[in-house]
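In the current project phase, the collection of sequences with tokenised folds has grown. A sample record is quoted in full directly below:
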Amino acid sequence: MTAKSAAAAARATVYGYPRQGQGRELKKAIEGYWKGRVDADALRATATELRRTNWRQLAEAGIHEVPTGDFSYYDHVLDTSVMVGAIPERHRAAVEADALDGYFAMARGTQDAAPLEMTKWFDTNYHYLVSELGPDSVFTADSTQQVAALGQALALGLTARPVLVGPVTYLLLAKPAPGVAADFDPLTLLDRLLPVYAQVLTDLRTAGAEWVQLDEPALVQDRTPAELNAAARAYRDLGGRTDRPKLLVASYFDRLGDALPVLAKAPVEGLALDFTEAAAANLDALAAVGGLPGKRLVAGVVNGRNIWVNDLEKSLATLGTLLGLADRVDVAASCSLLHVPLDATAERDIEPQILRWLAFARQKTAEIVTLAKGLGGGTDTIAAELAANRADLASRAGSALTHDPAVRARTAAVTATDGRRSQPYPERAAAQRAHLRLPLLPTTTIGSFPQTTELRTARADLRAGRIDSAGYEERIRAEIGEVISFQEKTGLDVLVHGEAERNDMVQYFAEQLTGYLATQHGWVQSYGTRYVRPPILAGDISRPEAMTVRWTTYAQSLTAKPVKGMLTGPVTMLAWSFVRDDQPLADTAQQVALALRDEVNDLEAAGTSVIQVDEPALRETLPLRACDHPEYLAWATEAFRLTTAGVRPDTQIHTHMCYAEFGDIVQAIDDLDADVISLEAARSHMQVARELAGHGYPREAGPGVYDIHSPRVPGADEAAALLRRGLEAIPAERLWVNPDCGLKTRAWPETRASLENLVTAARTVRTELSAS
């Protein structure tokens, strides 16, 4: 096919779409099912209608080929485990008794069976459920869900493409099951898994699929020759079968690198590449292999992870370069639109001109369609759209919101000493022990306590004018009083005020900093039914006034025990926002760090002796390629130190991280120079404690003994067993006892019971230590 005919054939598609619905109908239906207010049939009916709505919206916008299989009740990787029969033995009976309840048991756990481990999906803030595999794992095909979704789309008269997690990525993301040797490599199961994928592909072809997309984002990471050979074998096997649909192998989030020639040679009909995060690298690599003659190329030229309008002319130039490198070039977002909110037009509180800078899922869909039209018919066919786009880009570039001379002058004046504590850790530790007088194995929580219906109602009442600010603040004071009283009665050693006033750990601060925009309906799935509204970091950042001092000092006035000041760190403020793309991330991080430094200093001046600056996104934001790690970790750790280095030696700085692979960044954790770090460890059975010990981490650490992402209540014996395992790696004088993460998503009954058991476990192990 010539470049001209490839352009004329260009079509618009997407890899996936937000699942929740305009009013988060899916979240409400699932949580209603968990609480017994919604039955299974009603839940399935809600899901069916949401899928239909999504497909119709995409088709009406001009998307030529809609995705199926991207919708999930909880997580698409968990769905893949169900599809291939990789059910943990502890959940098998529940799945066999009731497939839906068993599915949710794997995701959330039961009182008798722990859930699957949860961690971040590459470098996004989406969490997936990690499959557990071993040498005895047996796979069986169950394509029921995938075939049903395809049938629903085809029944609407739509062209549909099922989307599956690819077999190589599925195995590369898996972990050894409990009781399996830690060095077991799930990729050794590939030959056992491929026939199951082949059966699913056959089932989808029989059901009417012309194309099936197999997502292989793991191939954009550094891969060994053996792993690349496995990918070659997988697609030689699947591609060589005759009873299958056409195969589109998709990569995203970074450059494909050494995997590109492997996939280009494979007997598959198409590749999908990211031309936003790694446009130049993928273009060069594609040219180096001689393009994709006879194949389909899906070009991800619209950023599927950020919310800024696309530069249409720049994207058209990229698409034009791709013509001639493939038999057919289609236009798409760079990845699933799962990672952005649904519709920017729902935002009523953002200035209309600024709103034109933003593109959520529906707006990105329109951009994709416009680009496909322009690629196929020429720029004259989209002249009006191009003119409007140029105006929107110029408006943003010239806005006073994006440039604050005072902020830029302050960042220019930063020196290396601003990011260094005044004394080394051993001297600080001695000063802190003398000042705080904490017991061995001190107990604490991560920060937040349950966000009750009453608290959410109070915020809604304030927004609606049903109560005034004085009435709202009285409710917050009452809640803080209850939280402090409970912690004292339970026997926790370092308390928190519970964050009753906070809607979200990033949004709360963003709403009080200049340069941020907040949304009302910009919900994005984080995991399961947990949705967040990432704020939009649009301009230069500063802090007009104190953000947390008032409520922290009020809580401290209610107790003689230390109360932690609680802040969200600069990297997490970036990672869990939609960050500006018009300056380096390092520059933005420095601006946020300076604003937070002012808050840290004000907390200390108000008498706060323990200050926690959370950085759960430090590992999440780590670039996918090792060669890009040093530059990122240098500015990320420097931003944390810039935030925290201005305090006295006897002020104890904590940080917190959760649900990520920490072994990759232990040196960076050390470089933060925090006095205490708390980390998720319950689901991973204290793996992080062993990683810290292996590194020789010299400071205090609290690997979690209570998994807060499950409703189950861990017994005191269970928490004590985890604590003893932690002591095998970390000396008692440097070990803290705490949950994995904050408690805002939990209910009070399970929170009370779990924390009481946590304190009991700490006391039990203290007694054992004193007797030994």
